[in-house]
């Protein structure tokens, strides 16, 4: 204890600070937990592990006391575990080694000379097998309840055990009856036949049924084949030696069969565990499981009633709250049969049955995988936030650049023209005044277009655009969009019999105007041709609906195929735009409006050079709904 006190004073963490407290379900458990918490030292939060070993019987367990013990462990920042095992000593040692604990705390009744929580043999085994784990026996005044006897696990299964005992009783008599019907009375033959039957019983039921069969078989051979026949006396010492060898061989074969069955079960369990871990590794690399699906996998693997994920409330001392579950779990994390704390703020619980020590190791691996899954989701969310912030920063930088250049240039031109007109010292000729007024009007129109695009882009970014869709003819929309544009460079080739499309008239006008203005800027002096059709070969569709296309074609320098998608991003200039001719929002706004109306805006390379913009909208169903156009700025 002096070393423990020194370690507590030093406050150093490590495997030695991890303390496992063994609980039997009695009222002494609170005292044991407090003792274990003191042994962890001042930095022991999360290093205290309270383990309740559940055996086949619940004698001596007090449910209310267990609830108090769970709450105390949670308040002390430790973790509570429930393990099902018929061997408490081995289960405690396995758990302590799995968490790399340096100390183990058990109860010791003052009214008995040996531990009252576990039997004398349990404490003695722990002392012998603890190895490097320091064992603390804490005295208390409680009289222990009756301890259930230790039962060795039946590796063959209950069905084979029952069948083995049935054969052990019936087979020796049946074999001896067959020998009597055969009128055979040789001692060696009878003994070999009965030995064969005993081996058969051993193969079916293991050690104990085989021992019963060996005893009954030896009695049969002694009574029916050993002189004097019909009596249990043995006159020849060699016959007695043969019967003893018969019993020894039967016992040895039974032990080998039991050991082989145990090894087979252990190998099968290890194989299942390895397969589960391999599946965990594969799903981790594939990143294919959601949180709910993974909880369902845990529940199905352990064949439990439910699995749940809990998070701690405000602060380190907050309670645990259920955030997601698969199946039936308790509202309180520690009220479940098994709980594995993943980190300071999250806990995985399994309800329905206590786990064995081997299953607890696999359960801990599932918990580690779930923690990695949660951390992966957090990283993805952080990545999305960072990308969103980077996009916002890029947008702000572009807006600042636009304000600093594209908006200031027209303002400077307007100010210069107004200053010239207001000069009193020099009277300008009428033609100069007209030119300055035209300059003011041109720069004002440019500012109005820039501000309008900025406002439209902000509406699209905020998803606050609600189109008022009604039937619209291409010819009407094109005529409204081309007002104010140089007609000498535009060629409109629209057929008269084209059906209407579903669109917002004001938004469609803005889409066409922006695309045509962009074509005029970059056509290199060539004409811009506007045509319409029912799509390529009459088969154009938008989201499964028949559609019509408006194609705006120029024969300028064009855009490389690799940059066709990039040109629709806000504030994009692909190097062929002279300074001061826009901030790169026209096509972005046009595409946003087209998609808001349920259509598409795409770019194609014009055969022979140039660029073709394709506005695709669904054909109208003929609703005839009238609505005011969406207001444009």
TrEMBL record:
It is an enzyme of class 2 (transferase). It is found in: Cell membrane; Membrane. Residues 402-621 form the Histidine kinase domain. The chain crosses the membrane at residues 161-179, 199-219, 240-261. It catalyses: ATP + protein L-histidine = ADP + protein N-phospho-L-histidine. GO terms for cellular component: plasma membrane. It is a multi-pass membrane protein. Its EC number is 2.7.13.3. Keywords: ATP-binding, Kinase, Membrane, Nucleotide-binding, Phosphoprotein, Transferase, Transmembrane, Transmembrane helix, Two-component regulatory system. One of its GO terms (molecular function) is phosphorelay sensor kinase activity. Its main location: membrane. It holds the Pfam family DUF4118. This is histidine kinase. It comes from Arthrobacter crystallopoietes BAB-32. The lineage of its organism: Bacteria, Bacillati, Actinomycetota, Actinomycetes, Micrococcales.
């Amino acid at each position: 204890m002096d070393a423990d006190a020194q370690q507590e004073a030093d406050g150093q963490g490590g495997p030695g600070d991890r303390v496992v407290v063994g609980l039997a379900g009695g009222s002494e458990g609170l005292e044991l937990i407090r003792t274990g918490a003191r042994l962890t030292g001042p930095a022991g939060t999360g290093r205290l592990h309270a383990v309740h070993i559940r055996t086949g019987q619940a004698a001596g367990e007090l449910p209310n006391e267990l609830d108090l013990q769970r709450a105390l462990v949670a308040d002390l920042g430790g973790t509570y575990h429930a393990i099902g095992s018929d061997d408490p000593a081995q289960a405690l040692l396995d758990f302590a080694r799995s968490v790399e604990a340096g100390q183990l705390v058990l109860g010791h009744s003052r009214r008995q000379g040996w531990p009252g929580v576990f039997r004398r043999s349990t404490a003695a085994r722990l002392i012998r097998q603890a190895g490097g784990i320091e064992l603390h026996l804490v005295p208390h005044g409680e009289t222990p309840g009756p301890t259930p006897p230790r039962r060795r696990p039946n590796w063959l299964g209950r069905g084979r055990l029952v069948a083995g005992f049935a054969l052990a009783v019936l087979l020796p008599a049946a074999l001896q009856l067959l020998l009597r019907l055969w009128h055979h009375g040789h001692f060696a033959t009878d003994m070999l036949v009965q030995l064969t039957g005993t081996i058969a019983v051993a193969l079916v039921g293991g050690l104990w049924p085989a021992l019963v069969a060996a005893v009954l078989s030896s009695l049969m051979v002694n009574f029916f084949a050993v002189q004097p026949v019909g009596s249990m006396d043995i006159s020849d010492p060699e016959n007695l030696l043969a019967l003893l060898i018969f019993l020894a061989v039967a016992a040895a074969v039974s032990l080998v069969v039991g050991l082989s069955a145990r090894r087979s079960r252990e190998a099968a369990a290890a194989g299942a565990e390895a397969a589960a871990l391999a599946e965990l590794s594969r799903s981790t690399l594939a990143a294919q499981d959601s949180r709910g699906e993974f909880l369902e996998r845990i529940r199905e693997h352990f064949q439990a009633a439910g699995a749940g994920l809990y998070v701690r409330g405000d602060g380190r001392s907050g309670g645990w709250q259920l955030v997601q579950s698969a199946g039936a779990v308790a509202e309180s994390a520690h009220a479940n049969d098994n709980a594995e704390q993943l980190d300071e703020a999250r806990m995985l619980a399994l309800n329905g049955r206590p786990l064995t020590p081997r299953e607890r190791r696999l359960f801990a691996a599932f918990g580690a995988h779930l923690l990695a899954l949660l951390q992966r989701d957090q990283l993805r969310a952080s990545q999305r936030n960072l990308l969103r912030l980077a996009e916002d920063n890029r947008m702000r930088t572009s807006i600042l650049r636009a304000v600093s250049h594209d908006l200031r240039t027209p303002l400077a031109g307007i100010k210069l023209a107004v200053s010239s007109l207001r000069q009193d010292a020099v009277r300008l000729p009428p033609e100069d005044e007209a030119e300055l007024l035209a300059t003011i009007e041109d720069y004002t129109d440019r500012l109005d277009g820039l501000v309008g695009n900025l406002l439209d882009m902000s509406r699209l970014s905020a998803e606050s655009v609600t189109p008022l869709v009604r039937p619209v003819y291409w010819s009407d929309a094109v005529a409204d969009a081309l007002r104010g544009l140089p007609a000498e460079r535009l060629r409109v080739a629209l057929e008269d019999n084209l059906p209407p499309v579903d669109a917002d008239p004001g938004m469609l006008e803005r889409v066409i105007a922006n695309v045509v203005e962009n074509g005029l800027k970059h056509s290199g002096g060539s004409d811009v041709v506007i045509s319409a059709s029912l799509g390529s070969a009459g088969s154009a569709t938008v989201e499964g609906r028949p559609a019509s296309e408006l194609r705006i074609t120029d024969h300028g320098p064009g855009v490389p195929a690799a940059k066709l998608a990039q040109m629709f991003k806000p504030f994009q200039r692909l190097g062929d735009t002279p300074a001061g001719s826009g901030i790169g929002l026209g096509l972005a706004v046009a595409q946003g409006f087209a998609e808001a109306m349920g259509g598409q805006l795409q770019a194609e390379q014009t055969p022979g050079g140039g660029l073709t913009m394709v506005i695709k909208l669904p054909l109208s169903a003929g609703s005839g709904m009238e609505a005011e156009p969406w207001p444009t700025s």
